[in-house]
Amino acid sequence: MKNNKYLTIYEEMVEQIKNGTLKPNTKLPSENDLVEQYDTSRETVRKALTMLSQNGYIQKVRGKGSFVLDMTKFDFPISGLVSFKELAQKMGKPWKTIVNEFELIKPDDYLQKHLSVTGKDSVWKVLRSREMDGERIILDKDYFNKKYVPILTKEICEGSIYEYLEEDLQLKISFAKKEIYVEEPTEEDCRYIDLQDYNHVVVVKNFVYLEDASLFQYTESRHRLDKFRFVDFARRGH
């Protein structure tokens, strides 16, 4: 039973986080305080804290201690093509889009590769911070091939670009290929996302195609990692 003391501590703290006794973003007692509180060894306390961290209940911040994560994460469907406006409205949360950059550019080598364009083509570049409940939690970096989106304005980007593309331009957006990474934040992320003390972002790269299989959009959605749970439904084929 003694060997399982860390599980007892873990389960007790999970219950405190779930019932709100330990509130989101609050700092946990120090390791020394937990050793005294549970009358156990430092090794046992560390095992419990490691398990809490691995299962997404706390975030360890070097030099500052451990903090309780907000368990009310937003469900973000991996397999769907959902706009931020649609997601925010579904959740019933106050939201806002901030357009940080909007310009027509000549694509560099990276964009030429990811958007299947040449250096002679023109590409709309849109950088938008997505704010929910007063916090900027996503940075969307959108690139649209001007061949398919001849006109775009900052005002359209402040709303829903997809609404404009589908209703005004009558584009038939069909499917996307997605890649998901966890990366350290860039200077751009630090500037446009309220990262707090989080030292990683979840990056979802989208290659979006029209009904005729034309690649017209490349997007990098950069998410603060504590705010999202990426969900999908999978069925095994027989």
UniProtKB/TrEMBL annotation:
Q: Which residues form the HTH gntR-type domain?
A: 3-71
Q: Name one GO biological process term.
A: negative regulation of DNA-templated transcription
Q: Which Pfam families does UniProt cross-reference here?
A: GntR (PF00392), UTRA (PF07702)
Q: Which domain of life is it from?
A: Bacteria
SMART domains in UniProt? HTH_GNTR, UTRA
Q: Which CDD domains match?
A: WHTH_GntR
Q: Name the keywords, alphabetized.
A: DNA-binding, Repressor, Transcription, Transcription regulation
Which GO MF terms does the UniProt record name? DNA binding; DNA-binding transcription factor activity
Annotated transmembrane regions: none
Range of residues in the leader sequence: none
Record-linked PANTHER family:
HTH-TYPE TRANSCRIPTIONAL REGULATOR TRER (PTHR44846:SF12), MANNOSYL-D-GLYCERATE TRANSPORT/METABOLISM SYSTEM REPRESSOR MNGR-RELATED (PTHR44846)
What name appears for this protein in its UniProt entry? Trehalose operon repressor
Organism whose genome encodes this protein: Mesobacillus foraminis
